[in-house]
């Protein structure tokens, strides 16, 4: 991983070949030592409140008695996915506009500014979705992770401006890039979002997969299938239900455990996990039948 490129004479230069990847937020860090939602919606809500005054007394009481949860307005999934795709692609296009010759002559300050310009191209995404609410907990997680990654990279620039500390900058930048990479790869693979020029993000996501400790499990193939089916139902996409407990399945188990408060989030498939998943599935499907796998394992 590229970290430092300061010459003995103190000039801040880095190899041109490395810089092309850095500006797009690649595996290395960018520094080398060297609409507000439509106002019409608000107006429409005001109109509805005014019209409510002409309701009959019974209708008004019924409205007041309605549970608060029913009033939640969820963010459009289609719009969010489209916006993320546009933001990432626009940022990559901006980064690729720098020529190798230009990059080779940049100082650390200039590189930091160039990368900040790339980050700022996604500022509108942060503003639009900072308070987003999704019905799917997994999409909620992905949205928050991506915005956190962006914030990490904004913080990296602020840190550089204040301290001129390359290690501090690199740490924040890498953390942000890793979060963004995992989200982008997942959105492409499981939600059909089209991204261009994300080879560096795919490589980063793969690297993180190899570092993630996979918990050994003695769960049967049928138990694993049950877990995978439940995770898919709860919108934690594992892909094909194949009865094989690989990285993706473990990752989604941990995410489910974290977001639903079933701690510790160890990623292990056991009777307790299957019971937790089954309970959450029943809440959204209305079914109460025990799965065949649960029955078999209880018997054991």
Number of strands: 0
Shape: elongated
Instruction: Sketch the major β-sheet.
Output: none
Number of domains: 3
* Rg, Å, rounded: 24 Å
What are the low-pLDDT stretches, counting only 5+ consecutive residues below 50? 1-21, 26-30, 33-69, 289-300
N-to-C SSE string, H for helix and E for strand:
HHHHHHHHHHHHHH
Distance between the termini: 49 Å
What is the residue-mean pLDDT, rounded to a whole number?
Answer: 78
The class by helix and strand makeup works out as mainly alpha
User: Which band does the percent of strand residues land in?
Assistant: under 5%
Number of helices: 14
The percent range for helix content is 55-70%
Give a structural overview:
With 300 residues, the chain is an all-alpha fold. It contains 14 helices and no strands. The radius of gyration is 24 Å and the shape is elongated. The N terminus and C terminus are likely disordered.
Summarize the structure.
The protein is mainly alpha-helical and 300 residues long. It has helices at 16-23, 39-51, 57-65, 77-95, 100-104, 108-120, 123-129, 137-163, 166-191, 199-211, 221-233, 247-260, 271-285, 292-299.
């Amino acid at each position: 991983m590229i970290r430092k490129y300061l010459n003995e004479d103190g000039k801040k230069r880095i190899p041109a070949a490395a810089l092309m990847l850095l500006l797009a937020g690649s595996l290395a860090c960018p520094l080398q030592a060297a609409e507000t939602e439509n106002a019409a919606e608000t107006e429409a809500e005001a109109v509805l409140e005014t019209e409510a005054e002409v309701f009959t007394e019974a209708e008004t009481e019924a409205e007041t008695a309605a549970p608060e949860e029913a009033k939640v307005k969820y963010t459009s999934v289609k719009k969010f996915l489209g916006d993320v795709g546009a933001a990432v692609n626009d940022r990559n296009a901006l980064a690729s506009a720098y020529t190798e010759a230009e990059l080779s002559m940049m100082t650390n300050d200039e590189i930091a500014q160039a990368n900040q310009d790339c980050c700022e191209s996604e500022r509108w995404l942060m503003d639009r979705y900072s308070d987003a609410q999704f019905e799917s907990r997994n999409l909620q997680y992905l949205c928050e992770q991506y915005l956190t990654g962006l914030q990490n990279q904004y913080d990296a620039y602020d840190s550089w401006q204040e301290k001129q500390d390359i290690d501090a900058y690199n740490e924040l930048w890498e953390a942000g890039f890793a979060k963004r990479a995992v989200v982008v790869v997942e959105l492409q693979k499981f939600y059909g979002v089209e991204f261009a020029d994300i080879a560096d993000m795919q490589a980063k996501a793969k690297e993180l997969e190899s570092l993630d400790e996979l918990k050994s499990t003695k769960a049967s193939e049928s138990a694993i299938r049950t877990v995978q089916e439940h995770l898919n139902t709860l919108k934690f996409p594992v892909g094909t239900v194949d009865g094989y407990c690989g990285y993706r399945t473990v990752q989604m188990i941990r995410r489910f455990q974290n977001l639903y408060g079933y701690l510790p989030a160890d990623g292990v498939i056991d009777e307790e996990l299957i019971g937790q998943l089954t309970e959450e599935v029943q809440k959204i499907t209305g079914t109460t039948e025990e799965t065949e796998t649960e029955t078999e394992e209880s018997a054991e």
